[in-house]
Design brief:
There is one protein chain. The protein is of the alpha/beta class. Helices cover 53% and strands 10% of the residues. It has 4 domains: 94 residues, Signal recognition particle alu RNA binding heterodimer, srp9/1 (2-Layer Sandwich); 189 residues, Rossmann fold; 70 residues, Orthogonal Bundle (Helicase, Ruva Protein, domain 3), CATH 1.10.8; 199 residues, Methane Monooxygenase Hydroxylase, Chain G, domain 1, CATH 1.20.58.760. It is built from 23 helices and 14 strands. A hairpin with a 4-residue loop joins strand 2 and strand 3. The chain starts with a helix and ends with a helix. The structure holds adenosine-5'-diphosphate (ADP) and zinc ion. Zinc ion (ZN) binds next to helix 17.
Amino acid sequence: MNPGRPILVAISVVVIGILGFSFYQASRKLPEENYSQFLKDIKTGNLTETSIKGNKVIATDLNGDQYITFSPDLSSLMPLLHDSEVTIRTHPVAVFIPLLRDMLIILLLLGGWLILSRSSSTSSKRFLRTGFYGPASKVKTGVTFNDVAGISEARDELKEIIDFLKYPARYSRLGGQIPKGVLLEGPPGTGKTLLAKAIAGEASVPFFSMGGSDFVEMFAGLGASRVRKLFEEAKKQAPCIIFIDEIDAIGGKRSSDYRNGSNDEREQTLNALLVEMDGFESNETIIVVAATNRSDILDSALLRPGRFDRRITLTLPDIRGRLKILMVHTAATALSGTVDLTTVARAIPGFSGAEIANLVNEAALLAARKGKQRIEQVDFEEAQDKIIMGLERKTMVIDQDARRLTAYHEAGHTALAKLLPEADPLHKTTIIPRGGSLGLTQQMPIDEHYAYTRSYLINRIKILLGGRLAEELVFGRVTTGASNDLLGSTQIAYRLVCEFGMSANLGPIACTGWVAEETVGGGGKFWQQSQQTLREIDLEILRIVQHGYESARELLKEHNEFLHMLAESLLAHETLDGEEVDIVYRCYLNHLRVKEKHVETGD
Ligand code: ADP
Ligand code: ZN
């Protein structure tokens, strides 16, 4: 039987009852008399009884006839009636009908919500997808790592988690704590949900899933109760995976109330989640996998050890990743022999996994519409135009000029990071657009807990300026793309002078002016610099930056072939990791050696 049926029946009965009652009321209509006649009747002693209900008065005269009148002011009527011989009957002011009406409304709301949440629990992806009103069914995802392309970096970490799920005893035997929470972070459509499902699939354990935002929109306290129910079900099925999508909806920093959902509700839900996660027994192997594209706003309570302490970052795929994803999604489609997936991959920088899946689907539909037996290259091209236009995402349609400029900008950073001594090893450099930036060269942030030398900091300034320098050297014009770099390099120069006392002219002096309370007692400004000193500080910062810029320019000029090689590699591959940059560097050194030989032999 449809679960909503009994409620519907109950609602119909109530509706019919109320309609019938009002109909009965309306059918025995009494004649109406004006109020002055009524007052006259009281005075003349013509009435035996008045029945008062709200401002409605039913008067019964000596003959037993009745009429209705409406009193404008009961307080003045009552003394009159008291003075007369008339019997006064009062009624509770129409309590019954409004009560029934309220009950009906509540019933309707409740019924509607029940029906909604029930059908949603099975069909829609909102709400809990395992149907916790009945016993939770084992949801086998059937997704494996083969369905997720380009996750090689995360694979080892994931392998360990799968082992935990498969052989919990092996790990807990020595008293080790099995991890409870894994945070998947990355832009939308990069396969976080898919990956969570693949973890469950690989470990062949049940998969429970819910969306963070579903909780916030609901009635107070319901989110927390849903969390508890979810874990209750999951415990019965352990080992298993609980997947929480958009965890930032409930786990955003507690002070920020930028979302429309009530903060209290969010906090209750978050607390329920934390309590559940802290409360696992060691024999219950439940791994909570949460996804977010805003890990920066997560409450720190969520990230503490024993909670979501494992993090896996998913990024937009580079050209190789896109090719792999294309291969996964075209595996089951009929491709014409003319299709070159590498060309397709090259043409869609900035596409996420989800957009690539969509591209393949669109291409297949287009080909089918034209009555083709196989998907051809042109179908991909058409599908791509359609999607790009639909998305109107500017970063996707960067023209070739902008792409070259970005490649040289990033190559500038990278070349200096490779050429300068003491530089941190490069993590990676990319020209895949993301967020507001066109490219990125990743270096380690300055860590307060390390002691850095002056030359290290100066080199960092040079590396940051490398992007702007390369633009200037190669294209003879500069762009706004370097604004963040300039902020970073100027900040380092400021700290070098004012915080680290490393300026030759000012000496070992701290001049930030503000000191924390614990250092000097009281806190606040301890040194009001004279105009002259301030000027000296300014000059020193300017000198450091300008000098860095000049000497970095000389270095880049000297090694401009390296710069070109890096930029070309970036244009071809979009992303280079540290090892690949090393390969380019070795090629460059070889090239130099060969050139030197030619010079020696006079070629
Ligand atoms: P997210 O949860 O990060 O928003 P999803 O996991 O929902 O992204 O991805 C949506 C769809 O995009 C997936 O079902 C899959 O078809 C496709 N997709 C995304 N990333 C990948 C990937 N790395 N490999 C294969 N398919 C992917
Ligand atoms: Zn830059």
